[in-house]
Amino acid sequence: MITREGRPFIVFGSVVTTILVVAALRWDSWWLFGVGVLFALLTLFITFFFRDPPRHIAAEPNLLVSPADGKVLGIQTLENYPHVGDRALKVSIFMSILDAHINRVPATGTVDYVKYNPGKFFPAFKDKASEQNEQTEIGMTTTGDHRIVFKQIAGIIARRIVCKLQKGDFVSVGARFGMIRFGSRAELFIPADSELRVKSGDHVKGGQTIIGYLPARSTKTTFQETAKGDNAKL
């Protein structure tokens, strides 16, 4: 499956490739043929980049899944993080251009806010990208009454963040909600007493890899399989 975001690029690349190849054959031009081959390869890469692989995971109490495909850059303990409250864990994930760039909701719950922060475009694997780069921050309260935050962070190449979530949306764990074009970073902020199942260096898949479990301190946990904003069309 290909995202709606990528289809204009694929159509454009296919049309240009066809025109160049037809022109090369008509005028017997190896130069035009070579350019046509380059456009064909670029179109194939764009098709690969905008892929949207299906992901499925069974809902469990307090489950946390990865919000993105990529490599876990690091896990930090913070003394305080807004919305999450007292001590929090920060899980940073780097998405290379070879990773699928669809972003998925890490837990079931209600969106409390969506905040866009303009910024710079440092390489996404740099620590300073977390605070200084352009990003979208989403805060939510899970069905287990935990507050978490997750971010979409642009990189040196990524200049387009897509987020379909709105305040008040109820979303299911693993639901597709957005994407970032061409190399970027995702971060997850959760209570410090959560049980982590990943470590630095692990490669994770959005909506599939279990990041961990939120603390089992609430009796309010319930699950709904479908919700407003679930699997946004991209």
Any descriptors?
234 residues, 8-stranded antiparallel β-sheet, 3-stranded antiparallel β-sheet, Glucose Permease (Domain IIA), 2 domains, 34% strand, alpha+beta
Order of helices and strands: HHEEEEEHEEEEEEEEE
Kindly report the average pLDDT value: 87
Count the beta strands. Answer: 14
CATH architecture of the largest domain: Distorted Sandwich
Which CATH class of the largest domain applies here?
Mainly Beta
β-strand amount: 25-35%
Q: Distance between the terminal alpha carbons, to the nearest Å?
A: 11 Å
Largest sheet entry: 8 strands, antiparallel
Percent helix among the residues? 10-25%
Radius of gyration: 20 Å
Biggest β-sheet: strands ordered side by side in the sheet? 9-5-6-7-11-3-2-13
Counted up, domains total 2
Number of helices: 3
Uncertain spans? 218-229
Structural class: alpha+beta
The CATH topology assignment of the largest domain is Glucose Permease (Domain IIA)
| Structural shape | elongated
Characterise this structure.
The chain has 234 residues and is an alpha+beta fold. The chain has two domains: 4-49; 63-213, Glucose Permease (Domain IIA) (Distorted Sandwich), CATH 2.70.70. 19% of the residues lie in helices and 34% in strands. The chain contains three helices and 14 strands. It has helices at 7-27, 30-49, 129-132, and strands at residues 63-65, 70-81, 85-95, 102-104, 109-117, 135-142, 147-154, 161-163, 170-171, 176-180, 184-191, 195-196, 203-204, 210-213. An eight-stranded antiparallel sheet has the order 9-5-6-7-11-3-2-13, with no helix packed on it. Helix 1 packs antiparallel against helix 2. Mean pLDDT is 87; it is low at 218-229.
